[in-house]
């Protein structure tokens, strides 16, 4: 691979914003990719993947390069040189790479890789939490998998098209996909591609959604005609899936505390041809109380640490803080207590997270079922998905039923 100066500059600029100004990697990359209209898909891929790679391996690369935060541009070039050297890329004779100690880099990589938190490039505290909650052996495998690049998975919008037809249409655009056994609506890309520019996407034939995430709406056991409340709908990944399973019949109330997220859901719902979704911002307890005992199904896709989806959000490793984890556990119990009251007698409730930590998952459900608010509910089943076991994102989902 030959390095191009303007692409490498874009990478360094992006890293400055992410590491030194606390900006989110996905947003920074979106901006960077608008920088030069002449960049082709390979150039854009290089910028996006290199930024993500260096964000993912920040701690390891910084240790190898012997640089400390806040990183100046020289520090970032040194980390870049580590990335390139470990990838086997020959460094051009630019001033930034003068005196790069290639052999020393490889030696330090071998030496530092003996220590898990350095090899896997994670903060000490996340490594400690992982070991405490999953045990040494499981955590070692899980965090290694969480550092792998994630496959791109599509969810067919069955309101508009079948999986088979979608596969053919994408193939005509040169995008090869495979079915995944056990995931009814999923198509996995054989090679990475920018699917958002396809006609099929613009027509609402699919959404990009990880395979594990696609299991949640199935778990909720919805049917056309039901009244379903999606309490933490965000931009609506699961809401849209629920809508397609309900064949546009019945009602979905999609709620969130952020109006901005629900606005994105509105745009996506229009593209998907999903017409049975009512949006409600939670700005007081009023919209919740109005729905007490009314819903056939309630989904609580709870806010969480995101420690199941680091493959997609590697910068969460550096943004997450122990206090956030403590606070989010409190919120998780609160939303379970409050939103479960919307389930009517005989109705069902799903609590889900994209975390692999038991303290955010089964422990929350156990605490809820033991509490006064949970006495009318019983656990039907739950699923603990670890990325290293399934090959997809780490997730948790529990199905509970309110006794009649
Ligand atoms: C895991 S995300 C939801 C992802 C979304 N369901 C999807 O499939 O794309 C959790 C969501 O909960 C929202 N949230 C946080 N606290 C909340 C609360 N107290 N009540 C309702 N929603 C909340 C966040 O804004 C966020 O959108």
Structure write-up:
The protein is α/β, with parallel strands linked by helices. The protein folds into three domains: 5-121, no CATH class; 153-208, 2-Layer Sandwich (Alpha-Beta Plaits); 214-402, Rossmann fold, CATH 3.40.50. 45% of the residues lie in helices and 16% in strands. It contains 19 helices and eleven strands. The strands form two sheets. The protein has a seven-stranded mixed β-sheet, sandwiched between helices. It has a four-stranded antiparallel β-sheet with strand order 2-3-1-4, with helices on one face. α13 (237-245) links the parallel β5 (227-230) and β6 (251-256). The relative contact order is 0.10. The protein binds S-adenosylmethionine. Residues 231-238, 256-258, 261, 282, 301, 303, 331, 335 line the site of S-adenosylmethionine.
Descriptive labels:
single chain; alpha/beta; Alpha-Beta Plaits; Rossmann fold; seven-stranded mixed sheet; four-stranded antiparallel sheet; 19 helices; 45% helix; binds S-adenosylmethionine
In short:
With 404 residues, the chain is of the alpha/beta class. The chain has 19 helices and eleven strands. The protein has three domains: 5-121, no CATH class; 153-208, Sun protein, domain 3 (Alpha-Beta Plaits); 214-402, Rossmann fold.
């Amino acid at each position: 691979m030959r390095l191009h100066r303007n692409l490498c500059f874009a990478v360094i600029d992006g890293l400055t914003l992410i590491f030194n100004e606390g900006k989110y990697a996905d947003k920074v990359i979106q901006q960077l990719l608008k920088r030069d209209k002449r960049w082709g898909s390979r150039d854009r891929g290089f910028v996006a993947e290199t930024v993500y790679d260096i964000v993912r391996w920040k701690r390891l690369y910084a240790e190898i390069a012997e640089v400390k935060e806040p990183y100046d541009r020289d520090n970032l070039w040194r980390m870049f040189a580590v990335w390139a050297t470990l990838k086997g890329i020959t460094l051009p004779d630019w001033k930034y790479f003068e005196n790069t100690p290639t052999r020393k880099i490889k030696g330090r990589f071998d030496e530092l890789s003996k220590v898990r938190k350095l090899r896997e490039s994670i903060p000490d505290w996340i490594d400690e939490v992982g070991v405490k909650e999953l045990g040494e052996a499981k955590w070692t495998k899980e965090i290694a998998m969480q550092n792998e690049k994630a496959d791109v998975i599509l969810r067919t919008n069955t309101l508009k098209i079948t999986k088979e037809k979608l596969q053919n249409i994408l193939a005509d655009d040169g995008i090869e996909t495979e079915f995944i056994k056990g995931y009814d609506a999923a198509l996995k890309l054989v090679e990475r591609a920018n699917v958002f520019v396809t006609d099929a996407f613009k027509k609402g034939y699919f959404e990009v959604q990880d395979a594990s995430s696609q299991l949640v709406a199935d778990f909720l056991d919805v049917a056309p005609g039901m009244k379903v409340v999606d309490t933490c709908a965000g931009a609506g990944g699961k809401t849209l899936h629920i809508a397609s399973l309900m064949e546009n019949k019945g009602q979905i109330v999609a709620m969130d505390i952020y109006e901005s997220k629900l606005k994105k859901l509105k745009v996506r719902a229009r593209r998907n041809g999903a017409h049975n979704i009512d949006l409600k911002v939670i700005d007081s307890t009023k919209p919740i109380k109005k729905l007490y005992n009314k819903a056939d199904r309630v989904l609580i896709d709870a806010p969480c640490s995101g420690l199941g989806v680091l493959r997609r959000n590697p910068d969460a490793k550096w943004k997450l803080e122990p206090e956030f984890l403590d606070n989010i556990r409190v919120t998780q119990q609160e939303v379970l207590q409050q939103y479960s009251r919307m389930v009517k007698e005989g109705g069902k409730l799903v609590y889900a997270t994209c975390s692999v930590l038991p303290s955010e998952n089964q422990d929350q459900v156990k605490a809820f079922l033991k509490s006064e608010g949970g006495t009318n509910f019983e656990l039907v089943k739950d699923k603990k998905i670890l990325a290293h076991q399934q090959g997809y994102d780490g997730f948790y989902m529990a199905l509970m039923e309110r006794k009649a």
